[in-house]
Amino acid sequence: MSMMQRATEALNRTLPDRDVDPLTTARRVVGQPVSRVDGPAKVTGGAAFTADVDLPGMAFASLVPSRIARGRIRRIDVTRAAAAPGVIGVVTHDNAPRMDTPVLMTLTAKGCAFIDVAPLQDDVVRWNGQAVAVVVAESQECADAAAHLVHVEYDADAARTSFGDLQSEAVFPADVLGEPPEITRGDVDGALAGAAFVVDEVYSTPQHHHMAIELHATVARWTPEGKLHVWDSTQALVRTRHSLAHAMGLPEEDVTVTCRAVGGGFGNKTVWDHQLLCVAAARVTGRPVRLALRRKDAFRMTGGRAPSRQRVALGADAAGRLRALVHDSVTGIVHENSPEQVSVPARHLYAADTYRIGQKKVVLDVVPNASMRAPGDSIGSFALESAIDELASRVGLDPIELRRRNEPAVDPTDGTRFSKRHLIEAYRRGAERFGWQERNRVPGGQRDGRWLVGHGTASAFYPYIRMPGGKVRIRITADGRAIVSAAANDMGMGTETVQVQQAAERLGLPIDRVGFEFGDTTLPESPIAAGSAQTASLVITVAAAAEELKKVLLKRVPRRSALYGLKPNDVVYRDGGLRHAGDPSRAATFEELVGEAEYVEAVGSSPMLPLEFMKYSMHGYGAHFCEVRVDAVTGETRVSRWVACIDAGRIINPKTAASQIRGAVIMGVGSALMEEGLVDRRTGRTVNASAAEYHVPVHADVCDIDVIFLDLPDPLTPMGVHGVGEIGIVGVAAAVANAVYNATGVRVRDLPITLDKIFTGSGAS
Amino acid sequence: MAHEGISTAEVTVRVNGQSRSADIDTRTSLLDLLRDRFRLTGTKWGCNQGGCGACTVLVDDQRTLSCLMLAVQADGREVTTIEGLGDAAALHRLQEAFIAHDGFQCGYCTAGQICSGVALAGEAAAGVPSVVTQDLRAETVELSVEEIRERMSGNLCRCGAHNGIVAAVSEVYGS
Predict the structure, then answer these.
(1) Residue A41's pLDDT band (boundaries 50, 70, 90)?
(2) Domain hosting residue A577, numbered range
(3) Based on the domain organization, do A501 and A542 belong to the same domain?
(4) What is the ipTM of this complex?
(5) Is A726 a catalytic residue?
(6) How far, in Å, CA of A11 to CA of A394, rounded?
(7) Taking CB atoms and an 8 Å cutoff, what residues of chain B touch A140?
(8) Is residue A708 part of a domain?
(9) A2 located within any domain
């Protein structure tokens, strides 16, 4: 941390807290299980996804992937492809327009690329599957057929493709998302050696893939004036515009990005090569171009979750109190902007007298990894929460009681106070619902016919994040409705519904009189939908816009009105208009205030720096409970019951929020039992690059998932909310592993927990 | 869409009750015919290899992965897509149930899930067994939650709306 950062943080700690949002306890609209407002469009095929865009004269693109992991293109021959029926043009590094490096996704930069080199700018191959040519044709059929006719010869170099083989080369990154890569306190090795109980194990997780059902798609159109309109399946409209504008050397105002619906993002619907290739192809051919990745391209041209290898060593005294906590981890990455921050949960979950918590990196010649749902936290918690369970067995304690004994009074590594922390309450409520007292207590001791039955639990955890820098416009129309506008993103989280609800609450309107307009960069700038931060970021910005709007509306109050002469602080939004805060008889409706105008509007900006989380430890918590049934003959594992009790602040919409938690649990069960991107170490090629071979949970794998929200507001966040998109996956794989151990007596420390590992104990690495 | 050197054919398909014709590249899948020629974009493209179920439509009332059927194979047949089941003003009861049970998040796999749900009701009514069906001689199959989960498993959902999807299908067609 720099001197400047230290000084800023020291200053922040002395700053007063922001006032508690008066709507933290409001329940008129917020807190109601409203069905999705975009439901009718989505169940009738009416929602507009990128690949549905059809422009006059549009051509279709197909990509040619590299066959080597590292090296150079010796020769590329496009003669046959260019002459194939329907082909309009072929773009390679020989004729691609010059493009600048796209702006990477970082905390400070405004881009959202994960690849730091623009495509087709040289003859260098950087990973297996990188696009080396684009074929543009009159139809997708023609483009796909001609792509096979591009002939490429390579000079291959040795490549770094095996994460497992390169462990000895691991080094510390400069930082882990602004935090030191390793933090220590006390003589942890000495404390470990002297501890009454010790667990010291290595846990490993493979490459994972987002596998959103919508494939990445881009449509690019250049205007005759040299402006660019891009329709793109992105979860970061404004950052996508910034990355593309920078790459193409355009001012940002000359680029428009539109995306009304995203078919699942999970961290990977950001800028990759394909958007630049589509834009380049449109420029070279002079046609609007649609480029939709094929499923195998999505695996090889966009990044997944980095693999990890994590040593967790815990030393406890006779009562189970942690005297030493070691989390030495390594992830296999490409850029430090996406470190797969596995060491984060251990920094904040449990009190330990001494600790060493850190992570190193191994740099690989693969498509750069991206953020994937709870990056780092999800797989980091697999290691930490498995080890905690192992320690509980060794000490002979209920794993919940072990956690209770290690509950910290302040943040265990930052030393900051908690804004709120209800981890133990989540365990209490979850345990009650699950029937934890009736669990199997002897590993391998409960059998139901051919099934061995086991129970496991683990902590959920996720940081509270609020993105600064957003704007929101609120427009009140002559008929008294509100239209809230921001270049926000909805990839299935329920953004539109939740924004309508929170704005309706803020503005004193019923939800059917509020609309949320989003999905286009011509609207006020809004932050990326990432880090589970979009909701809180928009709530605070809508609050700011609502305050601005009060000023605008009050200026319109006629002299005869009961509101005449009042200041913004004197009035509140109530019953479809403004009202004196202390005197309900002094009121005016929006219709009256808008009067003869078509509409009245105001723009609000979010407070710039999220100072609150420099001063406080702000995280969401939760407790997962799972029952597994393991076939005693085949070793097949089925998850048969799940309870997730989540402490994620105030819940705006319990219906859509519960769906977010369920979805995260299901993705976590996938990582626990089946998901594994298999890389051929000889070629660096991901070999199971298909929807059929990269296994994700299907209906038959998914039991009913019971979600409980504590619904306790965080006094320091807008409306008391936290994000709910990612917390649900954290701890899931550990809960499954702990339940499998409880069912079978076999501890698997290498994901996924497949039947071969249960049978042979081979996953006990 | 005729280009020199490309084999073409004229196909006529009855889509959502209307007869529609197109002169197509014979490599065109039913999925691309529906989406790119007939502009029925509610049917989605998820993998183009029969692995995800997003492109599921009904062909002569049988659920069919439209990415794996050539358009010429659909010539003369009856195709129902999500747009044919109901619209926002008059939703099919399974579409209503999907909204009520939050059976989707991003909405991308939804058309395929709903088409599969409608078709599996017909399959069960006709006594077509699944791997979890206990009585293989039964005239009709009761759609238990287990049956629905099994029969819907060809339709992937990555957002994890499985509970809501199964609840919706169960409410409308379940035993």
Answers:
(1) very high
(2) 466-609
(3) yes
(4) 0.98
(5) yes
(6) 44
(7) 32, 36
(8) yes
(9) no
